[in-house]
């Protein structure tokens, strides 16, 4: 990135147009792939189709991602995060804001809203991961066996929640984490929103009310 003189005589950084173009190209390819994977399935989607939808040459897709497996992993990771920034969920502003709430009920309101935003992006992709992993061992290897990252996030949220003054004293961190993990699962979200036709707003209201009733002492 080049340095130029600003009006105050100090060096200022000139925007790197090449880096910005590369970022936009990557984002366009990921968005195109996501739409096609959801509509057609992982196996039925070719990189040529992704390139055509993104408005780039197929060689560009190969140059950026090398192969379809890597592109698929990027689609999933971007859906979870909401962007391409390498920031873990527990370091995201929404998660930190929720955990910083002084009451358990307040934390749940922020937490459910943040999870809703993630589920709106990632829930439609969850069935694709299972289907693709079943037919392609190399894709399955991209999500190695071990602690579920989603549970790790919910356990951290539960640990903060159970320390709040209005948290139910008979619910420990492990039980709270199980409730968050189960009720805020992508599978349950899909049942209500995709299969039963609930709006995301209705799902959020229900999930927040259910968790508040289970986890807080004063939920009227």
Automatic annotation (TrEMBL):
The keyword Protease does not apply. InterPro entries: Homeodomain-like_sf, HTH-type_TetR-like_transc_reg, HTH_TetR, Tet_transcr_reg_TetR-rel_C_sf. The keyword Phosphoprotein does not apply. Residues 23-83 form the HTH tetR-type domain. PANTHER family: HTH-TYPE TRANSCRIPTIONAL REGULATOR BETI, HTH-TYPE TRANSCRIPTIONAL REGULATOR RUTR. It comes from Streptomyces silvae. This is Helix-turn-helix domain containing protein. Keywords: DNA-binding, Transcription, Transcription regulation. Residues 1-25 are annotated as: Disordered. Pfam families: TetR_N. Residues 46-65 bind DNA.
């Amino acid at each position: 990135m080049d340095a130029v003189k600003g009006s105050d005589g100090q060096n200022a950084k000139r925007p790197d147009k090449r880096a910005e173009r590369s970022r936009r190209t990557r984002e366009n390819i990921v968005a195109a792939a996501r739409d096609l994977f959801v509509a057609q399935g992982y196996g039925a989607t070719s990189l040529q189709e992704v390139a055509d939808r993104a408005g780039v040459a197929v060689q560009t897709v190969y140059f950026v991602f090398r192969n379809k497996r890597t592109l698929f992993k990027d689609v999933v990771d971007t859906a979870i995060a909401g962007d391409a920034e390498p920031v873990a969920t527990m370091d995201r502003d929404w998660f930190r804001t929720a955990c910083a709430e002084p009451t358990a009920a307040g934390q749940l309101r922020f937490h459910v809203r943040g999870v809703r935003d993630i589920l709106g992006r990632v829930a439609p992709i969850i069935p694709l991961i299972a289907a693709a992993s079943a037919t392609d061992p190399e894709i399955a290897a991209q999500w190695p066996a071990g602690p579920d990252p989603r549970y790790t996030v919910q356990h951290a949220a539960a640990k903060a929640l159970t320390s709040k003054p209005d948290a139910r004293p008979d619910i420990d961190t492990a039980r709270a984490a199980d409730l968050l993990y189960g009720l805020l699962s992508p599978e349950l979200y899909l049942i209500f929103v995709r299969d039963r036709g609930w709006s995301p707003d209705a799902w959020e209201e229900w999930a927040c009310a259910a968790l508040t009733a289970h986890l807080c002492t004063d939920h009227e």
